């Protein structure tokens, strides 16, 4: 059995290396193509996955020689930390970023307004809107309005007495005003969007100089942006975008996966599942499944709400997965510990290692090969445990009645003697007289005395 396990592990390792090499050759070396515009579509809630996607794609488009980058927005808002990561990536970009609220019917609300203000050029499609940029605490009260700012629906202003909420509002105002001043846009309205949750349509935004232009689509945006002056990394550039081809940079499967688990609804359910799983395990020790599932869900939920950075969450899941798989190997269960550990290890590996970072990437073939090897060894271990549990017992009355042996000393009829049975010496009683060396079979047991008959 040990030889077969070694051969299986070796074959899986060779397979993982082969997949890794093939994938590395397929992905090796990005092709540089000049004179094109990269397009990034940022849709849905803004969370850690969206921030990572924008940062990676901006860097990738720059490396591949994009002339400009169109950041197409359609978002209701999201987490403040993720928004600030996206803004930092835009400001650090070495290519002009054109913010574009599209298609028709899209919006750049809340965090999307800040991101649009951070772009070197801001545009909107018809029938779109932006604004309502007041920060709202998760699970807390809306801090608007502040001071004597007008409240929605014309109701009387409600002063805010909480110092923490006041600081959050003032910090948000300073942030969006600085972005407005950086790119020469309407800073007064930006402050209104934060204080009073003001909103604007595309035409209104153009009139108030909140955006630079209105375009029906990406091609129209590039045509109308051509010749405009923008400031990128401290240098003034003239956009030359008319007629350039557009190359889409769609999110990969990893971004889609992280986007699903960071969805606010999914994050809420994961947190609930994690808490309830740990509570059930505490009230019913040894159930295993609730505790394992709860720990995994809680770590993913904390990452989804950005209470844990992605590197810490991924590392914690990997450590948890390895620990659970070792626990399964040392104290085999019904498989709940091992399967949970395998899931935690794979999810943690995906979260921790970003394969899009040049020079710092773990190929998915390696992760898949290790996960497959662990799954195969776990399956083999569970099979061996199941087989051992199905075997007949080697002690007890049921097993003893099937045993036979030989007399070590002669025995008289109805007398007692000694016999070797199952490699052990037992005191035996026989109703028949038998010489030493005779074969006997066990028919009963009275404590440490066995009743035997001639075999």
Automatic annotation (TrEMBL):
The segments labelled Disordered in the record are 142-161
Reading the lineage from the top rank, the first entry is Bacteria
| Residues of the NfeD-like C-terminal domain | 405-454
Task: Give the way it sits in the membrane.
Answer: Multi-pass membrane protein
- List residues of the NfeD1b N-terminal domain: 46-141
Does this entry carry the keyword Membrane? yes
Record-annotated NfeD integral membrane domain positions: 265-382
- Location(s) in or outside the cell: Membrane
Identification of the protein by name: Nodulation protein NfeD
Q: Which organism is it from?
A: Dyella halodurans
